[in-house]
């Protein structure tokens, strides 16, 4: 080796290879509907089906889904906040939602998970907005602060007559009915109408599912909607 060669400083280059891929974008699916519509059952079944495909799938709920939000859940559903009126309830839901998003939903979506949630911001729009007669501008302002850009990719509205929903809810809860299940039939009829109007107003996001059938039939209708809109079998995570 010559003196010139010995004096050169060797340059070491890292091996050239493909850059690591970013995780596929997560998907956010919410379930809405009146009391007794079977949301919890269908949330669980959809999560299990997605997980069975090898997808990272998370099941959560509102109010709740994080430590702070679960505390607020007890306060709201016990009826303790009802005397304060719909404005106070909407503010409590917003506070719970903010914690739920920061602690649970956004971290899961950022890692590419499919998040399946039992209720979300649409419930505040309907329960406190439509039925509580709160100004829509206030509801939108609360959403802007808490939800921001973290909007559902798909919302499945489970629909059935109020009478049937209350019968199911009573069979499930008995004497332990929560603050909203204890409302009268006229309240629940208005609730159903409001959710149906929501689905009609936002068809690009919402799918109305007939929840009168047995759980297997409803689950298949749910899956058909998810497959058509979000195509979970695709490896690139792209929606149709």
Summarize the structure.
The protein is an alpha/beta fold.
Please provide a written account of the structure.
With 240 residues, the chain is α/β, with parallel strands linked by helices. It has one domain: 3-Layer(aba) Sandwich (Rossmann fold). It is built from nine helices and five strands, in the order H-E-H-E-H-H-E-H-H-E-H-H-E-H. 37% of the residues are buried. The N terminus is likely disordered.
List the SSEs and their pairings.
Elements: H1 3-7, E1 27-33, H2 39-52, E2 57-61, H3 67-77, H4 86-110, E3 114-118, H5 121-131, H6 136-146, E4 154-159, H7 162-173, H8 185-201, E5 206-210, H9 215-230
Helix pairs in contact: 2-9, 3-4, 4-5, 4-6, 5-8
Which descriptors apply to this entry?
nucleotide biosynthesis; Thymidylate kinase; single chain; 240 residues; five-stranded parallel β-sheet; dTMP kinase activity; 51% helix; alpha/beta
What's the number of structural domains? 1
Query: Number of helix segments?
Result: 9
The helix-strand sequence is HEHEHHEHHEHHEH
The pLDDT mean sits at 89
The CATH superfamily name is P-loop containing nucleotide triphosphate hydrolases
Taking Cα atoms only, what radius of gyration do you get, to the nearest Å?
A: 23 Å
| Uncertain ranges | 3-10
Helix/strand/pairing class, anyone? alpha/beta
GO molecular function: dTMP kinase activity
Protein name: Thymidylate kinase
EC number: 2.7.4.9
Keywords: ATP-binding, Kinase, Nucleotide biosynthesis, Nucleotide-binding, Transferase
């Amino acid at each position: 080796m010559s003196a010139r060669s010995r004096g050169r400083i060797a340059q070491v280059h890292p091996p050239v290879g493909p850059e690591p891929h970013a995780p596929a974008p997560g998907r956010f699916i919410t379930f809405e509907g009146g009391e007794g519509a079977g949301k919890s059952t269908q949330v669980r079944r959809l999560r299990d089906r997605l997980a069975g495909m090898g997808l990272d799938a998370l099941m959560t709920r509102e109010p709740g889904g994080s430590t702070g939000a679960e505390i607020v859940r007890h306060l709201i559903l016990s009826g303790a906040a009802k005397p304060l009126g719909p404005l106070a309830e909407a503010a409590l839901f917003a506070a719970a939602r903010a914690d739920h998003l920061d602690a649970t939903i956004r971290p899961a979506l950022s890692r590419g998970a499919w998040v399946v949630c039992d209720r979300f911001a649409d419930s505040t729009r309907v329960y406190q907005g439509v039925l509580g007669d709160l100004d829509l501008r206030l509801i939108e302002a609360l959403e802007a602060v808490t939800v921001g850009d973290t909007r559902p990719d798909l919302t499945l509205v489970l629909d059935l007559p109020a009478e049937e929903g209350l019968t199911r809810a009573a069979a499930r809860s008995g004497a332990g009915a929560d603050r909203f299940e204890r409302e009268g039939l006229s309240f629940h009829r208005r609730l159903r109408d409001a959710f149906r109007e929501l689905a009609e107003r936002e068809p690009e996001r919402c799918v109305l599912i007939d929840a009168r059938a047995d759980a297997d039939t409803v689950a298949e209708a749910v899956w058909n909607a998810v497959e058509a809109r979000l195509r979970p079998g695709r490896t690139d995570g792209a929606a149709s």
